[in-house]
Amino acid sequence: MMKCKKGIFLAFLLLFFSTHSNAGEELFVVEDIVIKGLQRIEPGTIFTYLPIEIGDSFNTADAPKIIKTLFKTKFFNDVVIEREGNVVVITVDERPTIVDIQFVGLEDITEDAMQDVLIAAGIQPGRIYNDSILDRIESELVEQYHARGKYAVKVDVNETLLKENKISIIVSVTEGEHALIKKIKIVGNRDYSDEELMKDFDSTLPVWYLFWKDSGTYSTPVLEGDIENLRSFYFNRGYLDFSIESSQVSLSKDKQSVYVVININEGERYTINKVEVAGQFVVPVDDIAPLISISSGQYISREELNKSRDRIKTLMSEHGYAFSNINVLPKKINDSEVDVSFFVDPGNRVYVRRIAIHGNITTSDEVFRRELRQMEGGWYSKTQIETSRSRLRRLAFVENVSIEEVRIPGKEDMLDLVIKVEEKLAGNFSLGAGFGGSGTGVSLNAGVEQENFLGTGNRVSFNINTAKSTRLYSFDFYNPYHNLDNVSRGFGFNLQTTDTKNTSDDSTYESERFNLFFRYGIPMTESNRISFSIAPERYNVRSTDKSADEVKSFINKHGEKYTNVKLGLSYSIDTRNRMQFPTSGFTTSLSGNAAVPGSDIEYYKILWKTKIYHALDVEEDLVIIASSNFGYGDGFGQLEEIPFFDKFKMGGPKSVRGYRKNDLSPKDSKGEPLGGDFMVSFSGELMFPTPIVEEKNFKSSIFIDAGLAAQDYERFEFSDMRGSVGVSFRWISPFGGLSFNFSTQFNDQEGDKTEGFQFNLGTL
After folding, report:
1. What residues are paired with 586 via a beta bridge?
2. CATH level 2 (architecture), domain 2-94
3. Could you read off the pLDDT of 250-295 as tens digits, one per residue?
4. Which residues contact 263 (CB under 8 A, 6 or more apart)?
5. Is the predicted pLDDT of residue 216 greater than 90, yes or no?
6. Was domain 97-174 assigned CATH 3.10.20.310?
7. Cα separations in angstroms, 565 against 81, 491, 496, 532, 604
8. Is the predicted pLDDT of residue 23 greater than 80, yes or no?
9. What are the residues whose beta carbons fall under 8 Å from the beta carbon of 366, sequence distance 6 or more?
């Protein structure tokens, strides 16, 4: 500021004492205007601000006016005006330009977020620098940290002058620790205790088991949200006159502890005298009345009023009235009673003119359109739109979906839908090698799985696994929309061979197994499906000197070669809100397959599986997952049991974690897993965001598993079930799902083979 005043003073001196003019009031015609000192600003920019032009009559006494005009642009530190003959010479000293703003020491807030804060305050690269910029940057950043509960933050802002009159600003931040809430007190509550009122507060005292949510840290926005929740608490219980009188936040001297006091006035509590529906009825009033969840004698509740209003609005939308207004009008009739009126204004009936899909790069429009239940040219339906959104979100190759309703100017009876999809990679590629030990030698494996093959929405997978003794080749193709009736179709094959000549395993047998499969699925509802399958199979098996007695006995009785045709039937329900890391809904399926009569070996297997997902919080950070599996099988005709190569087995990272794969199964005469005709497993899991890791495709969980395969259900005892508890880390990587499990076992028995750490690549 002193520099600017000095410039103005100097300009006046030059005006009044210049050798080129005799007096400040002398008039002359301007023959030219010369501007000196420009480095960054174009002369043309200056001329747009000048109140004089070449050819104008100019009085030197008007120079202060020109100087003020140029200073108002805030481009200059100094401005000097001189006369040289009939030429006006303007000499300027430009203010520097901010070329960049760099941050050092950021942890709690990202650099991009900080840049956005400064941009909102009018501070960004390219702007003119002035002496107040540094103070403004410091105050803006300090305010951001204070809002996050970091009151000990220190911000140091410095500038560096560069060439061409440019400024680089460096912001050094020492964030300090979050201030912790030491006490929250509510004053003025007579009907409810502090504990009841703060039950749903996000501002809480520190709790160790909520460490990933920064439990106990103070945040101004969070407290504001809690105060709003407090209002809702009372408004939902009939306290129409409730008010927040004040809220005070005090800080300890060391700026590490926060004390919160909220002063409230509960007011009187109101009950409902009568409820009525008024307005224009385009649907029968008898259809509206059941949607209202309040009645005479109840305490008035804002939540129930809003729910009732939303249900009526949804009903109207199902009849095409997309923009109906449902006004809820409570009217006090005395100090303790209100009348409630729902006024229905349906507006115009609306149909969907056009549906546009944006954001799809890989996937064709048709793949997304076949998931839609709201159709172009049809009457608007909120339910169908939400169903469409849900179906799109459940596609394995979709990250996110938004649907925008666009009103058409001048058209009250139509709208457009704009569906924005965010695609993601939905394929796995694996290539690896390993050493199995026990003489199995080196194994090589490669696999490709693509949920959206060539953008068609079809799933294709191919896998190869080769080891010294075993080779596996598999192919699977699945088309979820084989025809216009949404019938799905799939087909594929599996080829597996086992050669024991070069292995030291004492419980092996040689085999070749080849099967084809064809399957069809028929939708019954949006979430229910019936599936059919047929699978011809050729199986050759040979015992060796190393084989267990059970293997030799089966082969001696039934031969070495089997040709079967298996038929499968399943009924499934899937209501998950998304395919990866769902937070609500469930899956359940009951399936069975059996060899048709006339097959070489006749047997059947039945499997029931279910999995339930439930979020414990609004943010859906805490999700409970409960699952159970039951399997049963038996032979028929000349077969008295399931063949040894197709029995149920338990244990491993996809079953009961913490136990070696297949180990929780009946053993053969060699002490190796043989499998059983019956199996049971249960699992409970609490999934939560992984601490420190911001990647949304990375989750952690605490789990408990239990399960066992038994020779048959008559010999099964729940007390024999093995279990484990532990932690799991899961990552949906670009190469597929990865899981890492750390566990400890309980109720394990002598001879059980346990594994404290397990790793799995594939479907999670």
Report:
1. 612
2. Roll (3.10)
3. 988 888 888 999 999 999 999 999 999 999 889 898 899 999 999 9
4. 187, 188, 244, 245, 246, 247, 248
5. no
6. yes
7. 102, 15, 17, 13, 12
8. no
9. none
467 — pLDDT class (breaks 50, 70, 90) = low
CATH of domain 180-265: 3.10.20.310
Q: Which tokens hold the place of 619?
A: 């943010």
Q: What is the CATH number of domain 351-423?
A: 3.10.20.310
Task: List strands edge to edge, sheet with 398-408.
Answer: 351-358, 411-423, 398-408
Q: What are the residues facing 419 on neighbouring strands?
A: 357, 403
Residues 590-642 have pLDDT tens digits of 999 999 998 999 999 999 999 999 999 888 889 999 999 999 999 998 888 89
Question: pTM, whole model, 2 decimals?
Answer: 0.65
Dihedral pair phi/psi, residue 444, rounded to 5°? -120, 140
Of 266, 264, 274, nearest to 300 by C-alpha is: 274
> What distances in angstroms separate CA 332 from CA 91, 231, 305, one per listed residue?
73, 19, 15
Residue with tokens 């019954």: 524
Distance CA 326, CA 308 (A): 10
Asked if 267 and 191 touch (Cβ cutoff 8 Å), the reply is no
Sheet containing 97-104: order of strands: 97-104, 166-174, 154-162
**Fold for the domain defined by 506-761:** Porin (2.40.160)
Q: Which of 458, 429, 477 is nearest to 362 (CA)?
A: 458
Same fold yes or no, 97-174 and 506-761: no
Report the alpha-carbon distance of residue 188 to residue 70 in Å, rounded.
59
